Amino acid sequence: MTQDVRTITRETTASTIARVFAEDDIGSVVVTSPEMKGVLGIVTKSDIMHQVAVDADISSISVGTFMSTPVVTITGDKSIREAATLMREHSIQHLPVVDDDELVGILTTTNLAHYLPRLRRNILRSRDELSDQ
Amino acid sequence: MTQDVRTITRETTASTIARVFAEDDIGSVVVTSPEMKGVLGIVTKSDIMHQVAVDADISSISVGTFMSTPVVTITGDKSIREAATLMREHSIQHLPVVDDDELVGILTTTNLAHYLPRLRRNILRSRDELSDQ
Protein backbone atom coordinates (compact mmCIF):
# COMPACT_ATOMS: atom_id res chain seq x y z
CA MET A 1 0.00 0.00 0.00
CA THR A 2 0.98 3.65 -0.30
CA GLN A 3 1.60 5.07 3.16
CA ASP A 4 1.94 8.71 2.20
CA VAL A 5 -1.76 9.47 1.57
CA ARG A 6 -2.72 12.91 0.35
CA THR A 7 -5.62 14.34 2.39
CA ILE A 8 -7.77 17.41 1.78
CA THR A 9 -10.72 19.09 3.49
CA ARG A 10 -14.25 19.22 2.06
CA GLU A 11 -13.80 22.91 1.12
CA THR A 12 -11.04 22.14 -1.42
CA THR A 13 -12.07 22.99 -5.00
CA ALA A 14 -12.20 20.54 -7.88
CA SER A 15 -9.57 22.49 -9.86
CA THR A 16 -7.13 22.38 -6.91
CA ILE A 17 -7.53 18.61 -6.77
CA ALA A 18 -7.06 18.30 -10.55
CA ARG A 19 -3.70 20.06 -10.08
CA VAL A 20 -2.78 17.74 -7.18
CA PHE A 21 -3.63 14.70 -9.31
CA ALA A 22 -1.60 16.02 -12.25
CA GLU A 23 1.42 17.16 -10.22
CA ASP A 24 1.66 14.25 -7.79
CA ASP A 25 0.59 11.62 -10.34
CA ILE A 26 -1.94 10.10 -7.95
CA GLY A 27 -5.49 8.93 -8.56
CA SER A 28 -7.32 9.76 -5.35
CA VAL A 29 -7.32 12.02 -2.30
CA VAL A 30 -8.96 11.27 1.02
CA VAL A 31 -11.22 13.89 2.60
CA THR A 32 -10.59 14.41 6.32
CA SER A 33 -11.48 17.06 8.87
CA PRO A 34 -9.35 18.68 11.57
CA GLU A 35 -12.30 18.35 13.96
CA MET A 36 -13.17 14.70 13.38
CA LYS A 37 -11.26 11.46 13.40
CA GLY A 38 -11.56 9.06 10.50
CA VAL A 39 -12.25 9.39 6.82
CA LEU A 40 -15.10 11.64 5.60
CA GLY A 41 -14.94 10.87 1.91
CA ILE A 42 -12.78 10.08 -1.09
CA VAL A 43 -12.36 11.86 -4.43
CA THR A 44 -10.92 10.09 -7.47
CA LYS A 45 -9.96 11.18 -10.98
CA SER A 46 -13.31 9.74 -12.11
CA ASP A 47 -15.16 12.15 -9.82
CA ILE A 48 -13.28 15.14 -11.25
CA MET A 49 -13.86 13.80 -14.77
CA HIS A 50 -17.57 13.69 -14.04
CA GLN A 51 -17.57 17.34 -12.93
CA VAL A 52 -15.70 18.30 -16.11
CA ALA A 53 -18.15 16.27 -18.20
CA VAL A 54 -21.20 18.05 -16.75
CA ASP A 55 -19.55 21.45 -17.29
CA ALA A 56 -19.39 22.29 -13.57
CA ASP A 57 -17.39 25.38 -12.61
CA ILE A 58 -14.45 23.39 -11.31
CA SER A 59 -12.64 26.46 -9.99
CA SER A 60 -15.41 27.09 -7.45
CA ILE A 61 -17.12 23.76 -6.75
CA SER A 62 -15.88 22.18 -3.51
CA VAL A 63 -15.37 18.44 -3.06
CA GLY A 64 -17.81 18.29 -0.14
CA THR A 65 -20.59 18.43 -2.74
CA PHE A 66 -19.44 15.49 -4.87
CA MET A 67 -17.05 13.30 -2.85
CA SER A 68 -17.95 9.63 -2.37
CA THR A 69 -19.21 9.00 1.15
CA PRO A 70 -19.35 6.81 3.16
CA VAL A 71 -16.01 5.32 2.15
CA VAL A 72 -15.27 1.61 1.82
CA THR A 73 -12.13 0.99 3.93
CA ILE A 74 -10.10 -1.98 5.13
CA THR A 75 -7.98 -2.61 8.23
CA GLY A 76 -4.24 -3.19 7.97
CA ASP A 77 -4.40 -6.80 9.18
CA LYS A 78 -6.38 -8.04 6.15
CA SER A 79 -4.82 -10.04 3.30
CA ILE A 80 -4.15 -8.74 -0.19
CA ARG A 81 -6.69 -11.25 -1.48
CA GLU A 82 -9.40 -9.85 0.80
CA ALA A 83 -8.54 -6.33 -0.36
CA ALA A 84 -8.73 -7.37 -4.03
CA THR A 85 -12.10 -9.07 -3.48
CA LEU A 86 -13.48 -6.02 -1.65
CA MET A 87 -12.35 -3.70 -4.46
CA ARG A 88 -13.98 -5.91 -7.08
CA GLU A 89 -17.24 -6.23 -5.13
CA HIS A 90 -17.53 -2.46 -4.71
CA SER A 91 -16.12 -1.58 -8.16
CA ILE A 92 -13.51 0.72 -6.60
CA GLN A 93 -9.87 1.30 -7.44
CA HIS A 94 -8.77 3.03 -4.23
CA LEU A 95 -9.16 1.49 -0.79
CA PRO A 96 -8.10 3.54 2.28
CA VAL A 97 -6.50 1.49 5.04
CA VAL A 98 -7.86 2.60 8.42
CA ASP A 99 -6.83 1.29 11.84
CA ASP A 100 -8.64 2.61 14.94
CA ASP A 101 -10.13 5.55 12.99
CA GLU A 102 -6.62 6.48 11.86
CA LEU A 103 -5.83 6.62 8.12
CA VAL A 104 -2.60 4.62 7.73
CA GLY A 105 -2.41 4.19 3.96
CA ILE A 106 -4.23 3.58 0.72
CA LEU A 107 -4.27 0.50 -1.48
CA THR A 108 -4.95 0.85 -5.22
CA THR A 109 -5.60 -1.59 -8.05
CA THR A 110 -2.22 -0.43 -9.39
CA ASN A 111 -0.54 -1.52 -6.11
CA LEU A 112 -2.22 -4.92 -6.48
CA ALA A 113 -1.27 -5.26 -10.15
CA HIS A 114 2.36 -4.45 -9.32
CA TYR A 115 2.28 -7.08 -6.59
CA LEU A 116 0.92 -9.77 -8.92
CA PRO A 117 4.24 -11.15 -10.29
CA ARG A 118 5.58 -11.33 -6.71
CA LEU A 119 2.41 -13.06 -5.47
CA ARG A 120 3.05 -15.98 -7.78
CA ARG A 121 6.58 -16.45 -6.43
CA ASN A 122 5.41 -16.09 -2.81
CA ILE A 123 2.58 -18.62 -3.19
CA LEU A 124 4.88 -21.18 -4.80
CA ARG A 125 7.59 -20.57 -2.19
CA SER A 126 5.21 -20.94 0.78
CA ARG A 127 3.84 -24.09 -0.87
CA ASP A 128 7.35 -25.49 -1.26
CA GLU A 129 8.12 -24.72 2.36
CA LEU A 130 4.98 -26.52 3.45
CA SER A 131 5.80 -29.59 1.41
CA ASP A 132 9.32 -29.64 2.87
CA GLN A 133 7.95 -30.20 6.34
CA MET B 1 -8.70 -8.03 -20.68
CA THR B 2 -11.52 -5.80 -21.90
CA GLN B 3 -12.33 -6.65 -25.50
CA ASP B 4 -14.66 -3.78 -26.24
CA VAL B 5 -12.07 -1.00 -26.53
CA ARG B 6 -13.26 2.53 -27.12
CA THR B 7 -11.34 4.20 -29.95
CA ILE B 8 -11.25 7.83 -31.08
CA THR B 9 -9.45 9.84 -33.75
CA ARG B 10 -6.76 12.44 -33.04
CA GLU B 11 -9.22 15.27 -33.79
CA THR B 12 -11.47 14.39 -30.81
CA THR B 13 -11.55 17.16 -28.18
CA ALA B 14 -10.54 16.74 -24.53
CA SER B 15 -14.04 17.61 -23.29
CA THR B 16 -15.62 14.94 -25.52
CA ILE B 17 -13.25 12.37 -24.02
CA ALA B 18 -14.01 13.57 -20.48
CA ARG B 19 -17.67 12.85 -21.21
CA VAL B 20 -16.82 9.40 -22.63
CA PHE B 21 -14.78 8.61 -19.50
CA ALA B 22 -17.58 9.77 -17.20
CA GLU B 23 -20.43 8.10 -19.10
CA ASP B 24 -18.75 4.79 -19.90
CA ASP B 25 -16.81 4.60 -16.61
CA ILE B 26 -13.57 3.79 -18.42
CA GLY B 27 -10.07 5.12 -17.84
CA SER B 28 -8.54 5.26 -21.30
CA VAL B 29 -9.31 5.53 -25.01
CA VAL B 30 -7.08 4.38 -27.84
CA VAL B 31 -6.38 6.75 -30.72
CA THR B 32 -6.66 5.15 -34.15
CA SER B 33 -6.97 6.38 -37.70
CA PRO B 34 -9.25 5.23 -40.54
CA GLU B 35 -6.25 5.50 -42.91
CA MET B 36 -3.67 3.59 -40.90
CA LYS B 37 -3.55 0.22 -39.21
CA GLY B 38 -2.44 -0.04 -35.61
CA VAL B 39 -2.54 2.19 -32.60
CA LEU B 40 -1.54 5.87 -32.92
CA GLY B 41 -1.76 6.88 -29.28
CA ILE B 42 -3.55 6.50 -25.99
CA VAL B 43 -5.32 9.04 -23.76
CA THR B 44 -6.00 8.36 -20.07
CA LYS B 45 -7.85 10.20 -17.32
CA SER B 46 -4.45 11.45 -16.14
CA ASP B 47 -3.87 13.15 -19.50
CA ILE B 48 -7.23 14.94 -19.32
CA MET B 49 -6.53 15.84 -15.68
CA HIS B 50 -3.26 17.42 -16.80
CA GLN B 51 -5.05 19.55 -19.41
CA VAL B 52 -7.56 20.67 -16.77
CA ALA B 53 -4.72 21.43 -14.34
CA VAL B 54 -2.92 23.70 -16.83
CA ASP B 55 -6.19 25.51 -17.65
CA ALA B 56 -6.25 24.37 -21.27
CA ASP B 57 -9.43 25.10 -23.25
CA ILE B 58 -10.65 21.52 -23.10
CA SER B 59 -13.62 22.17 -25.39
CA SER B 60 -11.28 22.97 -28.29
CA ILE B 61 -7.98 21.17 -27.67
CA SER B 62 -7.73 17.92 -29.64
CA VAL B 63 -6.12 14.78 -28.32
CA GLY B 64 -3.59 14.65 -31.15
CA THR B 65 -1.70 17.39 -29.30
CA PHE B 66 -1.39 15.63 -25.95
CA MET B 67 -1.95 11.88 -26.44
CA SER B 68 0.82 9.50 -25.35
CA THR B 69 2.68 8.14 -28.36
CA PRO B 70 4.26 5.73 -29.18
CA VAL B 71 2.10 3.34 -27.17
CA VAL B 72 3.41 0.42 -25.11
CA THR B 73 1.43 -2.62 -26.26
CA ILE B 74 1.48 -6.38 -25.72
CA THR B 75 0.47 -9.34 -27.88
CA GLY B 76 -2.36 -11.64 -26.88
CA ASP B 77 -0.13 -14.68 -26.37
CA LYS B 78 1.74 -13.18 -23.39
CA SER B 79 1.10 -14.17 -19.77
CA ILE B 80 -0.64 -12.05 -17.16
CA ARG B 81 2.63 -11.92 -15.25
CA GLU B 82 4.47 -10.50 -18.27
CA ALA B 83 1.73 -7.90 -18.70
CA ALA B 84 1.93 -6.90 -15.01
CA THR B 85 5.72 -6.58 -15.21
CA LEU B 86 5.51 -4.46 -18.38
CA MET B 87 2.96 -2.14 -16.78
CA ARG B 88 5.11 -1.70 -13.69
CA GLU B 89 8.27 -1.07 -15.73
CA HIS B 90 6.57 1.61 -17.82
CA SER B 91 4.45 3.03 -14.96
CA ILE B 92 1.27 2.60 -17.01
CA GLN B 93 -2.20 1.45 -16.03
CA HIS B 94 -3.59 0.69 -19.50
CA LEU B 95 -1.97 -1.75 -21.91
CA PRO B 96 -3.52 -2.21 -25.38
CA VAL B 97 -3.38 -5.77 -26.70
CA VAL B 98 -2.37 -5.73 -30.37
CA ASP B 99 -2.06 -8.76 -32.66
CA ASP B 100 -0.83 -8.22 -36.23
CA ASP B 101 -1.41 -4.44 -36.04
CA GLU B 102 -4.98 -5.14 -34.96
CA LEU B 103 -6.26 -3.79 -31.62
CA VAL B 104 -7.93 -6.77 -29.93
CA GLY B 105 -8.38 -5.51 -26.36
CA ILE B 106 -6.99 -3.53 -23.49
CA LEU B 107 -5.61 -4.75 -20.18
CA THR B 108 -5.76 -2.47 -17.13
CA THR B 109 -4.30 -2.62 -13.62
CA THR B 110 -7.92 -3.00 -12.48
CA ASN B 111 -8.31 -6.13 -14.66
CA LEU B 112 -5.14 -7.53 -13.07
CA ALA B 113 -6.25 -6.65 -9.52
CA HIS B 114 -9.61 -8.36 -10.11
CA TYR B 115 -7.78 -11.42 -11.36
CA LEU B 116 -5.52 -11.61 -8.30
CA PRO B 117 -7.76 -13.75 -6.00
CA ARG B 118 -8.32 -16.17 -8.90
CA LEU B 119 -4.58 -16.30 -9.65
CA ARG B 120 -3.88 -17.65 -6.18
CA ARG B 121 -6.40 -20.46 -6.65
CA ASN B 122 -5.10 -21.26 -10.13
CA ILE B 123 -1.47 -21.43 -9.01
CA LEU B 124 -2.30 -23.72 -6.11
CA ARG B 125 -4.52 -25.89 -8.28
CA SER B 126 -1.91 -26.31 -11.00
CA ARG B 127 0.64 -27.08 -8.29
CA ASP B 128 -1.63 -29.73 -6.80
CA GLU B 129 -2.16 -31.26 -10.20
CA LEU B 130 1.59 -31.42 -10.74
CA SER B 131 2.20 -33.08 -7.38
CA ASP B 132 -0.51 -35.65 -8.13
CA GLN B 133 1.44 -36.95 -11.09
Describe this structure in words.
The structure is a homodimer of 133-residue chains. Chain A has four helices and five strands. In chain A, strand 4 (94-99) and strand 5 (102-108) form a beta hairpin. Chain A has a single domain (7-132), classed as CBS-domain. With 133 residues, chain A is of the alpha+beta class. Chain A is elongated, with a radius of gyration of 17 Å. Chain A has helices at residues 14-24, 45-53, 80-89, 109-132; strands at 7-8, 28-31, 41-44, 94-99, 102-108. Chain A binds chain B through residues 15, 18-19, 21-23, 25, 27, 45-46, 48-50, 52-54, 58, 80-81, 84-85, 87-88, 93, 108-110, 112-117, 119-120, 123-124, 127, 131, and chain B through 15, 18-19, 21-23, 25, 27, 45-46, 48-50, 52-54, 58, 80-81, 84-85, 87-88, 93, 108-110, 112-117, 119-120, 123-124, 127, 131.
Named at the architecture level, the CATH assignment of chain A is Roll
Largest sheet of chain A: 3 strands, mixed
Order of helices and strands of chain A: EHEEHHEEH
Please report the distance between the alpha carbons of the first and last residues of chain A. 32 Å
- Give the proportion of residues in helices of chain A: 40-55%
Considering residues with a beta carbon less than 8 A from a beta carbon on another chain, report the largest interface and each chain's count.
A-B, 39 and 39 residues
Determine Rg of chain A (CA atoms, Å).
17 Å
Number of domains of chain A: 1
Number of strands of chain A: 5
CATH superfamily of chain A: CBS-domain
